[in-house]
Design brief:
The structure is a single chain. This protein is of the alpha+beta class. About 25% of the residues lie in helices and about 40% in strands. The protein has 3 helices and 8 strands. The termini are far apart.
Length: about 140
């Protein structure tokens, strides 16, 4: 099992706001650049995309209100599990300590090829959440 932890970031929004933004998988479409939206479909519980010839799906496995959301693979080429954590920041309950856990069943070659890219992607997502100029809350 490959386990990757993102960095932690303090997001200038309350945990409930972030939880609500990520609890509906359709909102993930708003986070994608326009040139990456083609071939991506989503409903409340799942999102599916064709990426470089691979079919990848993710679905919500568990929602714990205002605390965490767990996602699992749904028609992906390898088994994985992702958890988004929304913890109230110790210094300010109106801010969120946001971090991500990624676990996957990767063989040695896949681990060598993907681990660094996955780490970078998770950290960039956290960085994007921390910077209010980069993170736009989904439309209600």
């Amino acid at each position: 099992m490959t386990t990757i932890h993102s960095k932690h970031g303090i997001v200038p929004r309350q945990p409930a706001e972030l939880y609500m933004a990520f609890s509906d998988m359709r909102n993930f479409l708003q986070f994608l650049p326009e040139d990456k939206k083609e071939g991506v479909t989503a409903d409340y519980d799942s999102i599916h995309a064709e990426v470089q010839g691979f079919s990848i799906g993710v679905k919500v496995h568990e929602r714990v209100p205002y605390s965490r959301i767990e996602f699992v693979d749904f028609g992906a080429p390898f088994a994985f599990h992702i958890v988004f954590y929304f913890d109230a920041a110790a210094e300010d309950p109106y801010k969120t300590d946001f971090h991500i856990l990624f676990e996957a069943e990767l063989n040695f070659m896949m681990k060598m090829m993907l681990s660094g890219k996955i780490q970078d992607a998770l950290d960039k997502l956290v960085d994007g959440m921390v910077d209010p100029s980069k993170f736009k809350m989904p439309d209600a």
